[in-house]
Design goal:
673 residues; mainly beta; Pectate Lyase C-like; Jelly Rolls; 3 domains; 11-stranded antiparallel sheet; 5% helix
C-alpha cells in the first residue's frame, strides 16, 4: 500500500506545533537587519533567509509578487513537524530564479562582426589570508573510479612538500573517475581566492575547483573555474589564481578536485595548495556560472548554446563562429557570455535573462520540508535539486525554463578528448536515496530534461515511497524519468498517478540537444529489485519521438527478484512518433530469463500499433487510446471537457489526468483542496 497518508498527518502536526515561529520575507520592503518575525519586520534577501535559525515547525513565508535571485537552501524539520516554505499576501506567487538580468543596452559591448558580449570583469581585490596550505602538512585522499588506476602521495623536493598524483591507466574519461580530497577549511567567506602551485609531466588545463562536503550529499560550498586564458600546466612550477564564490550556506568544507576528464593518462601532476585569501570580487559585472539558457522576453525567443573550450580552435561540433542569430557560448575563465545578433541585444529585447548552472532550490540532505505555492524558474541546473531527501512535500508550485547548463563533458574513452556535453537538468529531481516524498498539483513546462524524476546511480541508494500525483506537464523533453542502476539497491512503492503529460519533446531544448529524445515516460535501465511501481490514471498526449521508452522487459514478474511495474488505466493519444520503444539490455539478455524479450522493438503511432503494443509487451492491458478534449489548451487548461473521452475511465470512475488543475490564468494554490 502506498504510504501517502503520512503527509497529511505531518501537516496536521505542524499546524499545531506550540511555540513555532513564522518568518516573513519581502523582496521590496524587507530589511535584512530586521527580525523577520512579522510582516512589518520582514527580511529581504535569500542570503538572509538561508542564515535564519529556522527550527522544526517554523514557517518561512515569501510575499506574493516578490522576486528573489539566487538559491534557496532550506532547513530540515523533523518527522511530523516539518518546516514550511510558502507565501503570504495577494498577487502572483513569489518567484525564485537563478538567472542574471542583462536587459540594458549598457550590459553589452560589441566584439565586432555582429558578436556582442557581457562586460569584462574587474580583477579581484585581495584581502587577508585565512588558510595556509603551503607546508602541505595534511595528506590528500584520492578516488580512482570505473577501472582508472593511479596513486597520490606527499612528495618532497628541495625542501618543498607537495601532493603528487600519478595517473597510470585511463579506462574511462570522466571528471568523477579521478577525485582528489584535501583538508577541511572552516569559517568560509562568500568569496575567496585560491592560489595553487602546479606542474605536470604532460600538459593540460584544470577546470572547476572547489570545496564541498566529503560525504553524502556532497554539497558544494565554494567553487570556481581556473581562468582559461592561461597557458597549459607544464613541467615547470607555475602559480594559478582561482576566484571562488559561495555555492551554499556551508561554513566548512573539504577541498575537492574532480580531474578525471582533464589529466592525461601517464601524467605525473604535482601541486601545492598555497592558501586561501578573502577577496572582494566584482559581483555586478560577471556571469559567475555557466549559462544554459539565453531567455529573451520571458520565452518569446531563446538562444542556442554553443560550446567554448580554449584548447579547441573552434567551438564544439566544428562551428567556426557563432553563425546564427542568438547563437551564444559562455567563457568560464572570463565569466562572460558571447552572442551573435545584428544589433545590441539590450536594445532588441525588453528582457534578457541568462539562466545559470545552479539549482534554484537546493535541498540536498534535507528532510521534513514542505513547499507550497512558489514559482521556480530560470535555472540552468535543476529547479528542485539535491540528493538524499526524505519526507519532502512539493505542492502547488510552478516550475519552468529549467536546465541546459553544463553538467560535465562526456570524454572519449580511448582518446580522452571531449566527446559531447552532458547538460542539466530536471524540474524536480530526487537524486540518490529518497524516502516518503510527495509532489502534487504542480505545473511544469519548458524543461531541458525531465519534468519529474527519481533516479540514482553507483552505491546502493534505495528509492522508496515516492508519490507524483495531479501534476500538469507540457513541453518537457521527458515528462517523467526513472532509473536505479545498482543491483545492490532497491526501489519500492513508487506511484505516478493522475498526471497530465502533453507535448513531450516540443520544448526549447529539443533541437539543440546532442540526443533529441522526447518521451513522456523515460524508463532507463533499472537493475535494482523493484516492487509496487505503479503508473495509472494518467494522460499521455503527443510526443516528438515516442510516448514510452523502456530499457527493461517489465513483463518479467520474478518473485525472487521482487521486480514489478504496473501500468493501468492510462490514456494515450500519440498521432505521430511512436507509442513505445523497447531496447533489450545486455544484462537481462545474459541472464537468459525465459520471459525476457530478445529483440529490441518499437510500436508506432496510432491505435492499431497501440493495441499491438498492449498485446506484445504485456503492460498497460486496460489502458486506452483516443483523443482527449481539453478545456482551453491556449491557456494551458488541460482539464478534460465534460463528455471528453477519458472523463469516466479512471480506476474510481472519475476523469483521467490531473484533477481540478486550472490553466495559467489562475493560481492552483488559491482555494486548493
Amino acid at each position: 500500500m502506498m504510504k501517502t497518508g503520512v503527509f497529511l498527518m505531518g501537516l496536521g502536526a505542524w499546524a499545531l506545533t506550540a511555540g513555532a515561529t513564522t518568518y516573513y520575507v519581502d523582496s521590496e520592503k524587507g530589511d535584512d537587519a530586521a527580525a523577520g518575525t512579522s510582516e512589518a519586520t520582514a527580511v529581504k534577501s535569500l542570503e538572509r533567509v538561508n542564515k535564519l535559525d529556522v527550527k522544526p515547525g517554523d514557517k518561512v513565508l515569501f510575499r506574493r509578487g516578490g522576486l528573489w535571485r539566487g538559491t534557496l537552501y532550506p532547513q530540515s524539520g523533523e518527522p511530523g513537524n516539518p518546516i514550511l516554505y510558502s507565501n503570504y499576501g495577494t498577487g502572483p506567487k513569489p518567484i525564485f530564479q537563478r538567472s542574471v538580468d542583462r536587459s540594458r543596452p549598457e550590459d553589452w559591448v560589441s566584439e565586432g562582426n555582429g558578436i556582442w558580449a557581457t562586460k569584462k570583469v574587474a580583477p579581484p581585490v585581495v584581502r587577508e589570508q585565512f588558510w595556509d596550505g603551503s607546508a602541505v602538512k595534511e595528506a590528500w585522499g584520492h578516488s580512482f573510479q570505473e577501472g582508472n588506476k593511479g596513486r597520490s602521495f606527499i612528495a618532497e623536493e628541495n625542501g618543498q612538500r607537495f601532493v603528487r598524483v600519478v595517473f597510470e591507466k585511463r579506462v574511462k574519461a570522466a571528471a568523477h573517475c579521478l577525485q582528489l580530497w584535501g583538508p577541511k577549511v572552516s569559517n568560509l567567506p562568500d568569496q575567496a581566492l585560491l592560489r595553487l602551485k602546479v606542474r605536470s609531466t604532460k600538459p593540460f588545463r584544470l577546470g572547476r575547483l572547489g570545496l564541498s562536503l566529503n560525504y553524502l550529499p556532497w554539497t558544494g560550498a565554494l567553487g570556481g573555474v581556473v581562468p582559461q586564458n592561461l597557458p597549459e600546466i607544464g613541467p615547470e612550477w607555475s602559480t594559478l589564481e582561482v576566484p571562488l564564490e559561495r555555492s551554499s550556506g556551508l561554513d566548512e568544507a573539504w577541498f575537492h578536485f574532480s580531474i578525471g576528464d582533464v589529466l592525461p593518462e601517464g601524467a605525473t601532476f604535482d601541486f601545492v595548495p598555497v592558501g586561501l585569501w578573502r577577496v572582494d570580487l566584482d559581483k555586478q559585472t560577471p556571469v559567475p556560472y555557466d549559462v544554459g539558457i539565453f531567455i529573451c522576453n520571458h520565452g518569446e525567443r531563446w538562444g542556442v548554446k554553443q560550446w567554448y573550450r580554449p584548447d579547441w580552435p573552434n567551438p564544439w561540433h566544428g562551428k567556426t563562429k557563432l553563425e546564427k542569430d542568438l547563437d551564444f557560448y559562455y567563457v568560464p575563465g572570463d565569466r562572460r557570455v558571447f552572442v551573435k545578433y545584428p544589433r545590441n541585444p539590450g536594445e532588441a529585447f525588453d528582457s534578457i535573462e541568462l539562466a545559470m548552472t545552479r539549482h534554484v532550490i537546493d535541498q540536498g540532505g534535507r528532510h521534513d520540508v514542505v513547499y507550497d505555492g512558489l514559482t521556480v524558474r530560470y535555472g540552468a541546473a535543476h529547479g528542485f535539486g539535491g540528493g538524499s531527501t526524505r519526507n519532502i512535500v512539493i505542492r502547488n508550485c510552478d516550475i519552468y525554463w529549467i536546465g541546459g547548463g553544463l553538467q560535465y563533458w562526456k570524454m572519449h574513452d580511448k582518446t580522452g578528448k571531449p566527446h559531447y556535453p552532458v547538460r542539466f537538468g530536471n524540474g524536480i529531481e530526487f537524486w540518490g536515496t529518497c524516502e516518503n516524498n510527495l509532489v502534487e498539483r504542480c505545473r511544469l513546462w519548458q524543461v531541458y530534461d525531465a519534468a519529474l524524476t527519481n533516479q540514482t546511480n553507483g552505491d546502493p541508494r534505495p528509492e522508496t515511497e515516492v508519490t507524483w500525483r495531479d501534476n500538469v506537464i507540457w513541453q518537457a523533453e521527458y515528462s517523467f524519468e526513472y532509473w536505479n542502476h545498482d543491483l545492490r539497491s532497491f526501489t519500492r512503492n513508487i506511484l505516478f498517478e493522475h498526471n497530465t503529460c502533453v507535448d513531450a519533446g516540443y520544448c526549447w531544448s529539443h533541437d539543440q540537444r546532442p540526443n533529441p529524445n522526447g518521451a513522456h515516460l523515460m524508463m532507463y535501465d533499472n537493475a535494482a529489485p523493484t516492487t509496487n511501481f505503479v503508473v495509472r490514471n494518467n494522460l499521455f498526449v503527443r510526443t516528438t519521438d515516442r510516448s514510452t521508452r523502456f530499457f527493461n522487459d517489465w513483463r518479467v514478474k520474478d518473485p525472487a527478484a521482487n521486480d514489478g511495474l504496473t501500468m493501468a488505466r492510462n490514456l494515450y493519444w500519440i498521432p505521430e512518433g511512436k507509442v513505445c520503444e523497447y531496447h533489450a539490455n545486455r544484462r537481462e539478455l545474459n541472464a537468459n530469463h525465459p520471459k525476457t524479450r530478445r529483440p529490441s522493438g518499437c510500436w508506432n503511432a496510432g491505435e492499431a500499433e497501440f493495441r499491438r503494443y498492449q498485446a506484445e509487451f504485456g503492460v498497460d492491458a486496460d489502458s486506452v487510446y483516443g483523443e482527449p478534449q481539453f478545456v482551453d489548451e491556449a491557456k494551458r487548461d488541460y482539464r478534460l471537457k465534460p463528455g471528453s473521452f477519458g472523463t469516466n475511465l479512471a480506476t474510481d470512475g472519475g476523469p483521467l489526468g490531473a484533477r481540478d488543475m486550472p490553466g495559467l490564468d489562475a493560481d492552483q494554490s488559491v482555494g486548493a483542496k
